[in-house]
Each structure stands twice: as C-alpha cells, then as structure tokens.
Design brief:
This protein is mainly alpha-helical and 472 residues long. The chain is 62% helix and 4% strand. The strands form 2 sheets. Strands 1-2 form a two-stranded antiparallel ribbon. The protein has a two-stranded antiparallel sheet with strand order 3-4.
C-alpha cells in the first residue's frame, strides 16, 4: 500500500509524513517491531525450558537463531490461513527449525503470555530509548529559554486579563517543572511494565506438572527479557492491566502539559498581544489568500492532535476489564495504544522545532506591561497599606480606582495626593516605593524562582540520566 492510501492521518501526514521522525519510532511502534518482540519472547521461553532441563541448550540456540529470521509478512500470511496470530508465529518458527526442536516452541505458554510480555518489552524499550530522551531534550530547551528570559518583564494574566507583572522566564519555568515531573513519572511507569509465563488461566496449571516452583521458572524467563512478574502472582490469563494503564496515563498527562503550553503560546501570537512569533522564513505560507499571515500552526497542531488522542485514555480503562480469565474484547482496541505514544512523541518533535524558531518579542511584552502599569500598582498599594496597619486598605484602594474613572487622573497621582494614606506612605522603604513607581519593579521573586526551578530540574535530569547509564 502506498503512503497516501493509508486511512489514518497519523500514518500519511504525521508519523509517516516525516521520514526522520518515523525512522526513530519504526522499530518500536510498527507491527513488524511487535512481531519481532513476540518472537524474542518465544525464544526466551525455550531458553528457560533448557535451563530447567526440559530441552537441550542446543535446541534453545537453534530457536534463537530461527527467530532472527521471522518476518511479520510470513506470520500474517500464516494467520490468513489459520486465523490465529500467536499460533501463526509458532508455526513460522517451527518451520525454521528441526523436528527435534519443534515440540518446545510455545510449550506451557498461552497467547497472552507472549503478547503481554512482548507488549511490556516493546513499550519499556520505546520509553527508555526514545520517549524519555526526547522529553529530556525538550526539557533542556525549555530550561535554556527560561534562563534566557528570566528577567524579561511580562504582564501576568488571570482570567485572560492583565493581572500583575512576572517575567517570561518565570512563565516558562512552570512548564519546566510540570514537564520535569512527568519525565520521572513516564520513566518509572515504563520501567515498571511486567511480563508473564503462567499459562491458560494464569495459575501455572501446565508448569506445575513439571516443577514444584513454577513462579521461579517465570521469574527466570522474565529476567532474560529484563522484566519482572507481577508483585504477587494472582492474575488472570493476562498481565494485570494497571501496569500498562499507568504508563498510558502518564503519557496522557505529559501530552496535556504540551497542549497547555502550545495553547499559551498560540494566544501570545495573537495580533493584539504579539509577545511571541516565529522567526521570519520567506518560504513559509500562512494563508492561501492573505500574504501577510504567519500562523502558529505548530502550536495549533499540537493541541489539535491532543484533542484526538487524549480520549484514548478512556479506552485504556475500558480495556482493563476482562471477563473472568480472558476475553477478546480488548484485542483490537488495545492495538491502538502505540498511536497515543506516537502522537505524543510527534508533539514533542513539533514543539522542539517551534521553540527553535520562536521569536520572543520583548519590546511588545514591555508595551503590554506598560498598558496596565497604573492598574497593576493597585495590589501593592493595598498590600503595603494593610501591612503598615491601615484598617481598610482594600476598600480604600478601590475608592481610589473609582476616582480614576471619575476624574481621569492616574492611580499613582491619586495615591500620592491621598491624605488618608499619607501617614502610611511615609513608612515605605525605597524598594517598596520603587514597586509603586514602575511595574517592572513589582515582579516578586520571578527571576530567582526561574533560576531555582531550572537549577533543580537540571540536577534531577542529570540524576535520571545517570540512572539510565547504571541500568544499562
């Protein structure tokens, strides 16, 4: 099938539409990659049987060599014939080995042992090799940008309106913290994925016939695959679903942070705000009819895809319900989980490119801040007057604001003319007076907290990366 004959836009436009991006994910999210994981699990199973004397090490060697040559194409061709995916895999492997080795392929296992264990391998390596490193790369970009603009004044906004001054770096540092927390959570959820080798109803019925400690056989099998079993083995035929749903939730939560950031940046693009933009590129077209337009399409794309994929979390929870020991009502729906992770990584990819192209318009930030300069001093007036003992500081400040509308005078003029406030104004320190004279002096701890946040997350990321090296 040609690329543009695909049904999903993820394939022909996003994931499949960018060869550089696709190549990084292909070994993990493709069906060929999944079949490779399943074959690897079957080989580990035979190796475990050899360890316990069920078959010889030479047979395990033979199976390991055979699975290296298994392809998704031949497995699916066999599935078209017999209508069973795992038995098709088993048949393909058996056709590549000697008659002496054939009895031991898939012996004592059930389909879910292979599928769930392969799923754990697939997502654990995807998270470790691609997703977390990409999240870390984005985090480092945000840290660098936050540090660069730690003292760039910007008006803070609440309810879509001008509130009090902050800095652009401080606004970015919020996302440094939120994303940083999710990096750790996504990593932990990926590392915590589990596998299984317990048979048709999960009670080791088959293995218990040949060994008095089947749980030890399972643990040894999973150790070959760098996995662990459930903490206490009381499962159905399938691995307990919460391990994979925990991962899906953490991915969805991290994706939501990216969508929130993209939404914030999109609004800062607005003509009447114009605090961020994109570095000029004469080749890019923003409108089919308006030559002057430069659209925030990367941020819009991130939020739009998020809307398509965040509801997938509901499907993950629905897939957590299985009737008795097993049913197939999650067989089709669970296959789409790779799309959630793929779309999330694509959002990281797009956002990193957008940050590289970002034009921070500090002059416009200052202009917007100065638009509300008189309004923003209302809060420090009230706070300082209350601090120095004025009994009704909030209500009296509101009276001054009413006089602004009645007289046309500025709030700062009315403040210093106000005889009621005067005894308390005399108590102000010079820094407090400066905060009332200029909104750029009323940014609180924005600069310090920006650098402190960046320092903290740089340290945490370094520790996390050191942990990766130790695990390898």
């Amino acid at each position: 099938m040609q690329l543009y004959e695909a049904v999903s836009p993820l394939d022909f436009r996003y994931y499949g539409g960018d060869e550089t991006f696709m190549k990084r994910l292909l070994p993990y999210v493709s069906e060929a990659g999944y079949v490779t994981c399943q074959a690897k699990v079957e080989a580990a199973l035979v190796r475990t049987l050899a360890k316990y004397g069920v078959c010889t090490a030479e047979i395990a060697d033979e199976v390991e060599q055979a699975v290296e040559h298994v392809t998704a194409e031949e497995v699916y061709e066999e599935q078209r014939r017999i209508r069973h995916n795992i038995r098709s895999l088993v048949n393909v492997i058996r056709n590549k080995i000697s008659p002496e080795a054939r009895p031991y392929v898939h012996l004592f296992a059930t389909s879910a042992d292979i599928l769930d264990t392969a799923t754990a391998i697939r997502f654990k390596t995807l998270i470790a090799d691609v997703i977390v490193p990409d999240m870390i790369a984005l985090e480092k970009q945000l840290i660098a940008l936050a540090r660069e603009h730690a003292d760039t004044p910007q008006i803070g906004r609440t309810h879509g309106q001008h509130a009090e001054p902050i800095t652009f770096g401080y606004a970015l540092s919020l996302y440094v913290s939120r994303l940083g927390t999710r990096i750790k959570k996504v990593h932990e959820a990926g590392q915590n994925l589990r596998g299984q080798f317990s048979g048709a109803v999960g009670a080791f019925n088959g293995l218990a016939l040949i060994h008095d400690n089947p749980e030890k056989m399972e643990a040894d099998f999973l150790e070959l695959l760098n996995l662990k079993p459930s903490d206490t083995h009381t499962s159905t035929q399938c691995v307990e679903p919460e391990f994979i749903s925990d991962l899906a939730y953490q991915i969805t939560a991290a994706y939501t942070i990216l969508a929130n950031f993209a939404d914030d940046m999109r609004h800062l693009y607005r003509t009447e705000i114009a605090e961020v933009g994109r570095k000029y590129n004469p080749q890019l077209v923003g409108s089919s009819t308006m030559p002057h337009k430069v659209n925030p399409e990367a941020y819009e794309n991130i939020k739009s895809l998020w809307k398509a994929f965040v509801p997938r979390m509901q499907t993950v929870f629905l897939d957590s319900i299985l009737e008795h020991q097993r049913d197939l009502t999650n067989s089709a729906s669970s296959r789409f989980l790779t799309e959630l992770v793929t779309a999330f990584d694509y959002a990281i990819y797009r956002l990193r490119k957008a940050l590289n192209e970002m034009d921070v318009k500090s002059e416009n930030m200052m202009h917007n801040l100065e638009m509300s300069a008189e309004d923003t001093i209302a809060e420090p007036i009230y706070l300082l007057m209350a601090y120095y003992g004025f009994p009704d500081a909030y209500d009296h400040t509101r009276k001054l604001i009413a006089q602004v509308h009645q007289t046309g005078k500025s709030l700062s003029t009315l403040l210093w003319e106000d005889e009621t406030f005067q005894p308390f104004l005399d108590k102000l320190t010079e820094p407090q007076r400066e905060a009332l004279r200029s909104p750029t002096n009323y940014i609180g701890a924005s600069v310090q907290r920006t650098h402190a946040t960046c320092d903290e997350w740089e340290k945490r990321i370094d520790n996390l990366m050191d942990g990766f090296i130790h695990q390898k």
